[in-house]
């Protein structure tokens, strides 16, 4: 049978789970915003919810590596380890 202490404990547990879930989601959102800002070379903004300005740098065409045949993004490509690889020099 449910008593008042059991109901209070249940409410407290549900509240802790709810606020914990929201806190984890917020931390992940801020972490993603900081990672994107570092990747773009910009300083992180104060609010992770601020709208990003659209830029032409969001997408990049892939090119086939003439040495190994893998498709890579030319501006962020790293060397495949072969001596004639044109990327990552």
Keywords for this entry:
89 residues, two-stranded antiparallel ribbon
Strands ordered across the widest β-sheet:
1-2
* Helical/strand content category: mainly alpha
**N to C succession of SSEs:** HEE
Ends: how far apart? 72 Å
Q: Give the overall shape.
A: rod-shaped
Number of helices: 1
User: What kind of sheet is the major sheet?
Assistant: 2 strands, antiparallel
Radius of gyration: 24 Å
Q: Strand fraction band?
A: under 5%
**Total beta-strand segments:** 2
- Give the helix level as a range of percent: 40-55%
Poorly predicted runs: none
Mean pLDDT: 80
What would you say this structure looks like, in words?
With 89 residues, the chain is mainly α. It is 42% helix and 4% strand. The chain has 1 helix and 2 strands, in the order αββ. Strands 1-2 form a two-stranded antiparallel sheet. The radius of gyration is 24 Å and the shape is rod-shaped. The mean pLDDT is 80.
Secondary-structure map:
Layout: H1 4-40, E1 63-64, E2 71-72
Brief account:
By secondary structure, the chain is mainly alpha-helical.
């Amino acid at each position: 049978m449910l008593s008042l202490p059991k109901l209070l404990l249940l409410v407290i547990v549900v509240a802790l789970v709810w606020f914990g879930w929201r806190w984890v989601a917020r931390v992940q959102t801020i972490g993603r915003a900081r990672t994107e800002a570092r990747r773009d070379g910009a300083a992180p903004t104060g609010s992770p919810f601020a709208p990003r300005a659209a830029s032409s740098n969001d997408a990049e065409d892939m090119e086939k590596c003439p040495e190994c045949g893998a498709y890579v993004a030319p501006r962020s490509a790293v060397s495949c380890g072969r001596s004639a690889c044109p990327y990552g020099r």
